[in-house]
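pipeline stage [seq->struct] | target=Phage tail family protein | organism=Porcincola intestinalis | residues=277
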Amino acid sequence: MNLYYEGSTGEIIDFNSDALAAENPEVLAKSEWKFSTISGVNGIGRVKTFYKDTSECDFKIDVLAENAAEYNAIMAKMHRVFDADVQRMQPGRLWWNGFYREAFIVVQSYESFDEMMESVTKTVHVISTYPFWIKENTYHFTSIRDESTGLYFAFDFPIDLGAPSYSEVLPCDCINSANFKLTFFGPCTDPSVTIGGNRYGLFCTLGTDERVEIDSKMKTIEKYDAHGNEENYFYLRDKDSYIFTKIDRGDIPVVRSKSLKMDVTLFDERGEPAVWI
């Protein structure tokens, strides 16, 4: 099992290292749907909606260091990384075999401290306001260009070489329709793509080394220049279709201009990690 905490600053706490061991990792995988009900005209109740609420659990970590110096360093690092995320109001990520869940460590307590053995059992209280385990799958769509003897393109199937656009397939192997991040790369003007029948487009011009990111979960559209400067492009979206429409499960058709370069990142969101061990 690959289980660790990644702080918002990028520091890692590995729960399966020589000095740390996860005592009860199964508590992190608990999945619960809340629900609300309504009564029908016949007096029989039915479920109105299912939803996820903030999840909480107590996770135990065994610390067994080689010496006092290692023990002090490990304890100081854990406290610093966990506490920094809370004070910055920036969640860290719990990673489990390639899936992550955003979380805060809000309580740190201890038992069975043994100074001679440089050991202790540390209990952390974990809260997740968005309690899904997420795996990001990114698909790259490159531009097509004529190179005297032919073409190169992203996927190996026939296309109409004379058409200004062509179709590809985006595999969405998620439990349900997926949140996504769609990135258009410059240079281009008025970039747009149709995915599963929905058009995702912007009325803007991007220069070389510029990009724009559309995030369906955060409901943001941000443009970045070559130096990383950020600009809000929400107002430049094509309002004729909903630009944050989730992408359906299955093999989804994608239609775009041959010259358009883009990435699509699908967020596979599950109640527990798909791979346990």
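stage status: PASS
auto-comment: The two ends are 5 Å apart (CA to CA). Residues 146-162 have pLDDT under 50 and may be disordered.
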